[in-house]
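wait is this the right file?? whatever heres the structure
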């Protein structure tokens, strides 16, 4: 791992080392394989401030430098009122997206709205965040919402659903909502988390993830060492779990919800 962080400005200026180029190309292969982004598409990036969403924004921006097609992006950051970012953190995010030339908006929202009736858990938080993203996308006429979920997220979701819900399902590379009016895409879904972390650390990305009250105690965090143990038996365990879902049976974004529903069930978001 790089000892001294390098400014992300160097990547944007075109000084891209081979390992970062491989990271970007992996995202590009996933985009092409699952028909995620097309010519002139508009994309809303869901920005948490964590390493995953910042790495996603960086990859989608940098790959435009050598693509024969173009697409436009906007970034939406949800600033929870209960755990707001410091002004310096928010400014660092704004500077990052200004350099990427991606319009950036930060909206204040309640993590625990009155509609929760005093309840709160990972599922409700995820649903609340998704509601805000979807409403913003609809208001701006943007049909694609890109999220920074990576391969480890997919594997953890699979294990949660299999071991604790009796259901072999996971998050989808492309997920359709509202009869095809909106699609969630996950370009980093085949990228290992350790590579995302390496990128964030090596290039000093302005990570400013909000406080999560269950970050170290939820099922997902408790499964991480279990999955790591499996990978010591077979280092391709994560890839095998990805392949077991047989995403190759995908159908194009343009097809209708009834036909897609025959292939893909609606899978819960990452909790």
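ok assuming it is, sequence goes like this
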């Amino acid at each position: 791992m790089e000892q001294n962080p390098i400014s992300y400005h160097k990547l944007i200026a075109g000084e891209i080392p081979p390992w970062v180029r491989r990271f970007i190309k992996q995202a590009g292969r996933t985009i092409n394989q699952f028909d995620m982004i097309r010519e002139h598409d508009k994309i809303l990036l869901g920005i948490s401030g964590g390493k995953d969403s910042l790495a996603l924004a960086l990859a989608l921006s940098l790959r435009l430098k050598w693509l024969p097609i173009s697409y436009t992006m906007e970034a939406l950051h949800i600033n929870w009122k209960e755990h707001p970012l410091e002004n310096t953190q928010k400014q660092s995010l704004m500077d990052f997206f200004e350099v990427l030339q991606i319009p950036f908006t930060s909206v204040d929202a309640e993590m625990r709205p009155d509609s929760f009736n005093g309840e709160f858990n990972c599922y409700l938080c995820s649903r609340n965040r998704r509601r805000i993203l979807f409403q913003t996308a609809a208001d701006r006429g943007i049909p694609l919402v890109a999220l920074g979920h990576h391969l480890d997220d997919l594997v953890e979701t699979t294990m949660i659903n299999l071991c604790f819900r009796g259901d072999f399902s996971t998050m989808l590379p492309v997920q359709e909502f509202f009869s095809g009016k909106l699609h969630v895409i996950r370009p980093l879904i085949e990228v290992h988390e350790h590579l995302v972390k390496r990128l964030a650390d090596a290039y000093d990305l302005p990570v400013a993830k909000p406080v999560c009250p269950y970050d170290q105690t939820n099922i997902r965090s408790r499964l991480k060492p279990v999955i790591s143990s499996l990978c010591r038996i077979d280092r391709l365990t994560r890839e095998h779990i990805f392949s077991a879902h047989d995403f190759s049976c995908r159908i194009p974004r343009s097809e209708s919800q009834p036909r897609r529903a025959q292939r893909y069930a609606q899978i819960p978001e990452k909790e």
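The chain has one domain: 9-263. so i think its the right one actually
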